[in-house]
Amino acid sequence: MTIQRTFSIIKPDATKRNLTGKINAKFEEQGLRIVAQKRLRMSRLQAQAFYAVHKERPFFGELVEYMVSEPVIVQVLEGENAVLKNREIMGATDPKKADKGTIRAEFGIDIGNNSVHGSDSEENAAIEIAYFFSGLELVG
Ligand code: GDP
Fold it and tell me: Which of 35, 43, 136, 139 is the most buried (most CB within 10 A)?
């Protein structure tokens, strides 16, 4: 059994529509524990740095403007195989292609406004967690 931590963001389209509780319920019902969580407004610099891997993509500017448009909830989820498990709970990037019952299928609006972010590897999870949280803020 591998207990992992992964980094998650409840994105602007979801906080705007008051979906934080419903999305957190999906994590908790499916075995992930929220071991850290805070609501913040990302700065443009923070959003650009967080998504730096996408900086050459045509949608980068749109993505950054979206991420700073409303508050977000940044969080750390813990559980068995948490990285992969969270990607399953989230569903595919494009809500139209996401499996039934996933967060993106249920709440996502379109490929940009897709309600949640989740780390795609254990290595990136560690980097992303450290970007937003100090060790003292993670309470397992
Ligand atoms: P993820 O790991 O499933 O979030 O997907 P990616 O790493 O490929 O993309 C990161 C984020 O960029 C996605 O979650 C979307 O919010 C956004 N994004 C991806 N593709 C597009 C696109 O074609 N248009 C726009 N506007 N945003 C996109």
Answer: 35
- 64-118 pLDDT, tens per residue? 999 999 999 999 999 999 999 999 999 999 999 999 999 999 999 999 999 999 9
Q: Does 117 participate in catalysis according to the annotation?
A: yes
Please name the residue whose Cα sits nearest to atom 15 of ligand 1. 112
Asked whether 93 lines ligand 1 (CB < 6 A), one says: yes
Closest CA to 35 of 66, 64, 3, 69: 3
Integer Cα distance of 113 and 50 in angstroms: 17
**Catalytic member of 8, 117, 119, 128:** 117
Quick check: pTM over 0.85? yes
For residue 2, give the 3-state DSSP assignment: coil
Q: Report whether residue 111 contacts ligand 1, using a CB cutoff of 6 Å.
A: yes
- Torsions phi, psi for 134 (to 5 deg): -90, 160
Tokens matching residue 133? 């949280």
